[in-house]
Amino acid sequence: MIEENKVVKIDYTVKNDAGQVIDTSEGNEPLAYLHGASNIIPGLEKALEGKAEGEEFKAVVHPDDAYGQRNEALIQTVDKEVFQGVDEIEVGMVFNAQGPQGNIQVTIVEIDGDKVTIDGNHPLAGIVLYFEGVVREVRDATDEEKEHGHAH
């Protein structure tokens, strides 16, 4: 049964409100995580609590239990020269930047001449996520996994 300090492997698909697939483990190895160590979003972790190996799951996870609400203050327009050393910048590129709370990832959302609009919100911020899948494995975490805070 899924509880704290268990290593869990799940096969999953996550969709948005429109039913578009945002991410899936299909065609890949199942996702492995250490339950209770904040390895996955809180809403999905809560939904998986108490499930058993082989059990199917569905979960609707709202932004406050996922990647948070969108914060318009994280959208800024900067001079293109901020990206000096990068040969060619394009919409959709992701960069690490220094923000008030430390390092954040920013995505280029618009380029207008010498002005570049960047968005520091997580791409899934403000979005309701619809998960479904199956629990593939549940096992006790090793001491090393507990110490490191993630599945090996």
UniProtKB/TrEMBL annotation:
Gene Ontology BP, a term: protein refolding
GO molecular function, one term: peptidyl-prolyl cis-trans isomerase activity
EC numbers: 5.2.1.8
InterPro entries reported in the protein's UniProt record: PPIase_dom_sf (IPR046357), PPIase_FKBP_dom (IPR001179), SlpA/SlyD-like_ins_sf (IPR048261)
Protein name per Swiss-Prot or TrEMBL: Peptidyl-prolyl cis-trans isomerase
A GO CC term assigned to this protein in UniProt: cytoplasm
Family label: Belongs to the FKBP-type PPIase family.
Compartments (UniProt record): Cytoplasm
SUPFAM superfamilies: FKBP-like
Pfam families noted in UniProt: FKBP_C
Top EC group: isomerase
Main location (coarse class): cytoplasm
Organism of origin: Enterovibrio coralii
PROSITE patterns: FKBP_PPIASE (PS50059)
Catalytic activity: [protein]-peptidylproline (omega=180) = [protein]-peptidylproline (omega=0)
Keyword Transmembrane found: no
Residue intervals of the PPIase FKBP-type domain: 5-71
Protein keywords: Chaperone, Cytoplasm, Isomerase, Rotamase
